[in-house]
Design a protein that fits this description.
Order of helices and strands: HHEHHEEHHH
Low-confidence stretches: none
Number of strands: 3
Radius of gyration: 34 Å
Strand order of the largest sheet: 1-3-2
Helix content: 40-55%
Structural class: mainly alpha
Oligomer: single chain
Distance between the termini: 83 Å
Length: about 140
């Protein structure tokens, strides 16, 4: 369907993205400004509408899966581009590891991080230093003043 063949009333009931879809079917690789300007012109909207809504238009285009933003900053229909799917065969490397090997790593970590008795002495020294401290509520402080 050609955009120019549609009446203004038909265009007015369509979303900006639907009109952009029709425009990109006819002419691909348009940047956001040119594409939205064509939509504003087709709908005979004011230039202030263009300035106020171009950011929202860009956001809606970004979220619509029918469109793709190309490296040069232009929009095209996603259906015109095939995606590259790269499968990683490195996942097989994890199957070679025995489950017991996983526990060996944990045991060595556990051995390295055993609680040291010297640390216990340090803690008791600190505890001794602070044993006479008292916790006072703010309310108690206010009543004393």
């Amino acid at each position: 369907m050609k955009v120019n063949k549609l009446s203004k009333e038909e265009l007015e009931v369509m979303s900006y993205n639907d009109i952009a879809n029709l425009l990109l079917n006819e002419e691909s690789n348009l940047n956001t400004a040119v594409l939205f300007k064509k939509i504003v012109d087709l709908l005979e909207l004011s230039s202030s509408t263009y300035e106020n809504k171009i950011g929202d238009f860009y956001t809606s285009m970004s979220n619509d899966k029918r469109f793709i933003l190309l490296e040069d900053g232009t929009w095209d229909l996603r259906k015109n581009h095939k995606s590259n799917v790269v499968l990683d065969d490195d996942l097989d490397d994890y199957d070679d590891e025995e489950p017991d090997d996983l526990y060996d790593d944990y045991e060595s970590y556990e051995e390295e991080n055993v609680f040291d008795e010297e640390q216990d002495d340090d803690i008791s020294d600190i505890t001794e230093d602070y044993k006479n401290l008292v916790i006072v509520d703010e309310e108690d402080l206010d009543s004393e003043q």
